[in-house]
Amino acid sequence: MSVDLSAKALKIGDIIRRLRAERDMSLTGLAQRAEVSKSNLSKIENNAISPTFDTIERIARGLGVRPGVLLSDDRPAAQILSFSRAGEGAQSARGDYGFEYLFPDLQDRRMVPIVTEIHPSKSHVPAHPSSHGGEEFFYVLEGKVEFVSDAQVLRVMHPGDSVYFSSDVQHLVRNPTDQVARVLWVWLG
């Protein structure tokens, strides 16, 4: 899955803008409620930058919705089953990460399943672990990744390895190789 930000691109900014307008909320009002700078919120709404999971969670809380609502389209969710075909999920990218959100009907869901490409780091400055609410699980599909926690626990993980953790633990997944790695990532927000 090479991230293609064309027709299937997740336009999270459009979703946030629509929900904000439905609530008759100003940009300043949402920025204050979400504890996100007005400048960053504007950039997110204009799809100029992709928000982190922590920011998605704060904006969702500011709007009074679950984070999955911001990662979905307007289609009503299937009552019992949701299917996703390979490569048809909404896509976005941030830094060394490419995300394919497998189910566009996540409005009524708590789990957010994502196939994530982790590209070799383009920066020689290591990113710092971050945290947000919820719980996470990921399973390495291809390549090799390093899992780093707030306790500076470094675990090298290979295909078939997995980890489950509380998202409030500072964490980071990085790719120490020159090949793209892929993981199935599930966030319970």
What does this structure look like?
- With 189 residues, the protein is of the alpha+beta class.
- The chain has 2 domains: 12-70, 434 Repressor (Amino-terminal Domain) (Orthogonal Bundle), CATH 1.10.260; 90-188, Sandwich (Jelly Rolls), CATH 2.60.120.10.
- The chain has 5 helices and 9 strands, in the order αααααβββββββββ.
- A 6-stranded antiparallel β-sheet has the order 1-2-3-9-4-7, with no helix packed on it. It has a 3-stranded antiparallel β-sheet with strand order 6-5-8, with no helix packed on it.
- Strand 5 and strand 6 (154-157) form a beta hairpin.
- Helix 1 crosses helix 3 (38-45) and helix 2 (27-34) packs across helix 4.
- The longest helix has 11 residues, at 12-22.
- The protein is globular and about 50 Å long.
Q: Which helices and strands, and how do they pair?
A:
Elements (H helix, E strand, L loop, with lengths): L11 H11 L4 H8 L3 H8 L7 H11 L3 H4 L19 E5 L2 E5 L9 E8 L16 E8 L2 E5 L4 E4 L4 E5 L4 E4 L6 E8 L1
Antiparallel strand pairs: 1-2, 2-3, 3-9, 4-7, 4-9, 5-6, 5-8
The total of beta strands comes to: 9
Largest beta-sheet details: 6 strands, antiparallel
Mean pLDDT: 81
Q: What is the level-2 CATH architecture name of the largest domain?
A: Sandwich
**What's the order of the H and E elements?**
HHHHHEEEEEEEEE
Helix content class: 10-25%
Rg to the nearest angstrom? Answer: 16 Å
Shape estimate: globular
CATH class of the largest domain: Mainly Beta
Total helix count? Answer: 5
CATH topology of the largest domain: Jelly Rolls
Structural class: alpha+beta
Stretches where pLDDT is under 50 for at least 5 consecutive residues are 1-8
How much strand content do the residues show? 25-35%
**How many structural domains does the protein architecture include?**
2
Strand order of the largest sheet: 1-2-3-9-4-7
